[in-house]
Amino acid sequence: MSGGLIFAIIMAVVFVGLGLADQRKMWWRFRARWYRNPEANEPSDAAFRGLRMLFFLGAAMVLFAGCQIQDAQNDMDRIEQEMDSRYGS
Description:
Number of domains: 1
Number of helices: 4
Helix content: over 70%
Radius of gyration: 21 Å
Largest sheet: none
Order of helices and strands: HHHH
Number of strands: 0
Strand content: under 5%
Distance between the termini: 25 Å
Shape: rod-shaped
Structural class: mainly alpha
C-alpha cells in the first residue's frame, strides 16, 4: 500500500467525519463570532445540507484519487519487474 493511498484514506475519514458532524454547531462554534448579528447571518438548512454533501463528495473524490495513485504505483512496479527480468538485473 503506497503512501498516497494511506493519505487518501486518512483524508477521506476526516471528510466523512466532518460530513457526519452537526453543521449548525460547527457554524456557531467557528463562524458565528465573525458577525455582529449571527442569528441574521446563519445559513439555511439547504446550505448546511449542501455543505454536508460537499464533504461526502470530497471524501469520494479523495478515495478515487488514492485508488488511482495505487493503481499507477502497481503499474510502475510491474513494469520495473518486467524490465529487471528481461534484462537480467
